[in-house]
Amino acid sequence: MFGLDFRLLRRYRQIIGILVKYGFQDLLADAGVSWGARVVESILPHQVVENIHKHTKWERIRMAVEELGTTYIKLAQILSNRPDVIPLELVAEFEKLQTHVPPFPGEEAKAIIEEEIGKPVEEVFTSFSLEPFASASIAQVHLAKLKDGSKVVLKVRRPDILEKIELDILIMKYIARKMEERGYMANLDPVGIVRAFDTAIHKEVDLTHEGYNLQRFASNFEGSQLVYVPKYYPQYTTRKLLTMEFIDGVHPYDVEGLKRINASGHELAKNGMFALFEQIFQHGFFHADPHPGNLFAMPDNKVCFIDFGMMGTVLKADVEFFADIVYGVTAKDSKTLIWGLKNIAVSQQFEGNKTFDYEVEDLINDYHALPADKMNMSDLFNRLLGLVNKYAIKMPPDYFLLSKCLVTIEGVGHRLDPNLN
Is 153 helix (H, G, I), strand (E, B) or coil? Predict the structure, then answer.
């Protein structure tokens, strides 16, 4: 199976053990990868097995993913943007995923920084904090100050993360091939999912890729009155290190902080929505995760986005059709909405299906029958998704990313201004 690579064998046994612990023996058997599962099952305490089955299947999947670690959490987070691939119940669980990863020693981070920039830290920075400012599964952040007085954040990749990810991907590929051989979950294309994930995760751990995203984003918003973009320092950025301006902004929900910078909730909400629409419909390149932790309020009611690791793309040819979908929803125009869906869909088997047309009409009427403060784009998109799945309509992956993005920014906007239209 994995030859004499004991690291792979040890990790494989660990993965099997975790899946058995959470009650997925049948899944392993169906997928043809149950080697070692019976041994693990026989030594699990009865109480552990009993307690696990108090949770729903979807909760157990999420709990198993959390225990499996970074690679599997990243895969689940990507799949949470694909409700056409996994059930909505599982999407909801994957959105709760938390990564509990302790920071690695500051001295180790300092050594990585010095190796990457080719100089001692003291030659480049007047100050450098050994204590991490923030820590995540792929990298951690340290504060520093350049010789010219500019405050910066240094995002340093974890020293062993790439090796761990590549080990897990080898095992994922093996399991996916076994599933394909047996025709298990063939409709999900497990080999294709793992192949796409392999590409996505390698982009995320290469911090120059995030730097390119930031550079492109800054170019798109040059001279903007709506958006403040952190300065990027390419001369201090490598695959293992990203350097950008430290943003001394205000969290969008910090009421006292907003007062301090004389910011208006209404203006911030409006500017945030307009900024996102500009990204989608003018640039075709949008921030795919605009949750409150990735947003700051700045003076003059500007909005600052941070964390450019995950971005979405809209093809120029599709921009108009995405606009039709959004306009159709907001203007109570089912004909335009259906036109947009039919033109952007990868498959066309619902062409001329009057039942589909009537269901979309009902959905929009139900949505607009609600009072303004009860309208919820999340519920609307979930119902629209239900129709897309019901009629087996295949949509481009970034359609779901864009929908989730709009729902997220709408939630932030309504928190800032409950009367936001």
Answer: strand
The average pLDDT across 112-126 equals 97
* Helix axis angle, 334-344 to 316-330, nearest 10°: 150
pLDDT at 180: 85
Q: What is the pLDDT of residue 338?
A: 87
DSSP assignment of 268-321 equals HHHHHHHHHHHIIIIISEEES---GGGEEEEGGGEEEE---SSEEE--HHHHHH
* Residue 211 near residue 259 (C-beta atoms within 8 A): no
For the chain, the farthest-separated pair of C-alpha atoms sits apart, in whole angstroms, at 70
Please count the CA atoms within 13 angstroms of the CA of 46 that sit on its side-chain side.
Answer: 0
> How distant, in Å, are the alpha carbons of 87, 95, 213, 239, 313 from that of 203?
26, 21, 11, 10, 15
Q: Which residue, among 13, 6, 65, has the nearest Cα to 39 in the 3D structure?
A: 13
Query: What is the rounded distance in angstroms from the CA atom of residue 169 to the CA atom of residue 177?
Result: 12
Active site residues: 289
The arithmetic mean of pLDDT across residues 336-352, rounded, is 77
pTM here?
Answer: 0.85
Q: Which of 407, 399, 400 is nearest to 377 (CA)?
A: 407
- Closest C-alpha to 152, from 225, 211, 99, 103: 211
Given the DSSP bridges, would you call strands 295-298 and 302-305 parallel, antiparallel or unpaired?
antiparallel
Q: Which is it for strands 302-305 and 134-135: parallel, antiparallel or unpaired?
A: unpaired
Amino acid at 45: P
Q: Is the pLDDT of residue 84 over 90?
A: no
Tokens 């930031």: give the residue: 214
- Helix (H), strand (E) at residue 144: strand 139-146
Task: Write the CB contacts of 409 (distance below 8 Å, at least 6 apart in sequence).
Answer: 272, 273, 276, 290
